[in-house]
């Protein structure tokens, strides 16, 4: 599918596939390209994208991979896979990123939430 649209892959990384999905999308604003790409994925992931002006955090619809949001004393929003990481960078835990949720951090509007699928159901990973 992507190769038919001109994508050339240099690795066998699943991350490269996601980047190509984002690159071919014409959705606006830009973070909707990330949302659109992630809706096509199957499997487990927690990702944070750093765009030109706003970080975007994504957790898979089934919640296999953990992702939490915290805040530093200067107000900066941070994301981590474990709350103990927040302690290391002197950030305060705010909340879990919910399964199937995309969080967009905007200086003007704060943290915005978009759901990948309606009413995602968490599932446990056997590993």
Automatic annotation (TrEMBL):
<protein>
    <recommendedName>
        <fullName>Glutamine amidotransferase type-2 domain-containing protein</fullName>
    </recommendedName>
</protein>
<dbReference type="Pfam" id="PF13537">
    <property type="entry name" value="GATase_7"/>
</dbReference>
<dbReference type="InterPro" id="IPR017932">
    <property type="entry name" value="GATase_2_dom"/>
</dbReference>
<feature type="domain" description="Glutamine amidotransferase type-2">
    <location>
        <begin position="1"/>
        <end position="108"/>
    </location>
</feature>
<dbReference type="GO" id="GO:0016740">
    <property type="term" value="F:transferase activity"/>
</dbReference>
<keyword id="KW-0808">Transferase</keyword>
<dbReference type="InterPro" id="IPR029055">
    <property type="entry name" value="Ntn_hydrolases_N"/>
</dbReference>
<keyword id="KW-0315">Glutamine amidotransferase</keyword>
């Amino acid at each position: 599918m992507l190769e038919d649209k001109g994508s050339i892959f240099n690795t066998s990384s699943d991350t490269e596939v996601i980047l190509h999905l984002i690159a071919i999308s014409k959705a606006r604003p830009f973070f909707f390209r990330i949302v659109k790409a992630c809706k096509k994925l199957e499997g487990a992931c927690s990702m944070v994208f750093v765009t030109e002006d706003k970080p975007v955090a994504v957790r898979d619809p089934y919640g296999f991979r953990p992702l939490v949001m915290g805040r530093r004393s200067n107000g900066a929003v941070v994301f981590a896979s474990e709350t103990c990481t927040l302690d290391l960078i002197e950030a305060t835990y705010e909340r879990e990123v919910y399964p199937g949720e995309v969080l967009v951090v905007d200086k003007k509007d704060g943290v915005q939430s978009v759901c990948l699928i309606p009413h995602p159901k968490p599932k446990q990973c056997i590993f």
